Amino acid sequence: MKMSKLVSIGKILNFHGIKGEVKMGFTSGKEDLIRGLKKVFIFKDNIKSAYDVVSVRFHKNFAILKFKQVNSIDDVMEIKGLLVHISEDSLKSNLVEDEFLIKDLINLDVYDIDGNKVGRVKDMGENRASDILEIEKENGLSFLVPFVKEWVPVVDLENKKLIIKYSDGIDSTEKSL
């Protein structure tokens, strides 16, 4: 059986109360994923330990978790500042439609709606409005495309490609990186 890779979903920031609850920072909008946690992994000194999630609640912008293995402030202090991981398979099973892992998009071939190869996904970033794909053309120049359905109607991970609404004018903001 192949072990799934682990993906970080948050960070233990501090204790909450005196009975071993932890205050975890996480990416906004991932409350449903956090709420459904059953088991997480934490690396301390390069040793992976599994923690069973007993309860999850939210306070302000933080998740408050109770692990079966953590029962005091001292226990929390042992893992304070460490990242909380889940299996990539668990994360993927919690993705909603049209939600993807960035690592799955990098290096996908990019085509226009007529089937002409435009380049490949070099990187992904974000701005206030949306995620942004950086597309690298064959000539090494790059241009940016908003990662929204209007601009990227098809993401086909199985065939390792995506289709963008592309015209020659779109890359007038090309840059050599």
Overview of this protein structure:
With 177 residues, the chain is mostly beta strands. The protein has 2 domains: 6-93, RimM (Elongation Factor Tu (Ef-tu), domain 3, Beta Barrel), CATH 2.40.30.60; 102-165, PRC-barrel domain (SH3 type barrels, Roll). The protein is 12% helix and 46% strand. The chain has helices at 31-35, 73-79, 88-93, 102-105; strands at 6-16, 21-26, 39-44, 47-59, 62-67, 83-87, 109-112, 117-126, 131-136, 141-146, 154-156, 161-164, 175-176. The protein has a 7-stranded mixed sheet with strand order 11-12-7-8-9-10-13, with no helix packed on it. A 6-stranded antiparallel β-barrel has the order 1-2-5-4-3-6. The longest helix has 7 residues, at 73-79. The radius of gyration is 20 Å and the shape is elongated.
Order of helices and strands: EEHEEEHEHHEEEEEEE
> What is the first-to-last residue Cα distance?
41 Å
Instruction: Find the structural class using helix and strand composition.
Output: mainly beta
Per CATH, the class of the largest domain reads: Mainly Beta
Major beta sheet summary = 7 strands, mixed
Instruction: Give the percentage of residues in beta strands.
Output: over 45%
**Proportion of residues in helical segments:** 10-25%
Question: What general outline do the C-alpha atoms trace?
Answer: elongated
Question: Assembly type of the shown chains?
Answer: single chain
Report strand order across the widest sheet: 11-12-7-8-9-10-13
